[in-house]
Amino acid sequence: MQPQSIGGLVLIIVGVLALMIRSVTYFTTEQVAGPLGIFAWEVEQPHTIFINPIVGILAIALGIGLMLMGRRAPAA
Fold first, then answer.
1. Is residue 76 included in any domain, yes or no?
2. Which of the residues in the chain have pLDDT under 70?
3. Can you give the residue range of the structural domain that contains 67?
């Protein structure tokens, strides 16, 4: 399998995953001081990254293009 075909396959898989998964959420832990500064609490804050569907469509299109480029026979 040629490197272009492998890259195209990876892009197609990433594109399909981007279309299936609309957002990714991760949490960070932060220490927050109390009202008098004596106590401290650990607070987990969520952060969400939204994935635009256009990114998935573009990745699939580029992956198909790379797969087709890898299938062509080299000019002799």
1. no
2. 1, 73-76
3. 3-71
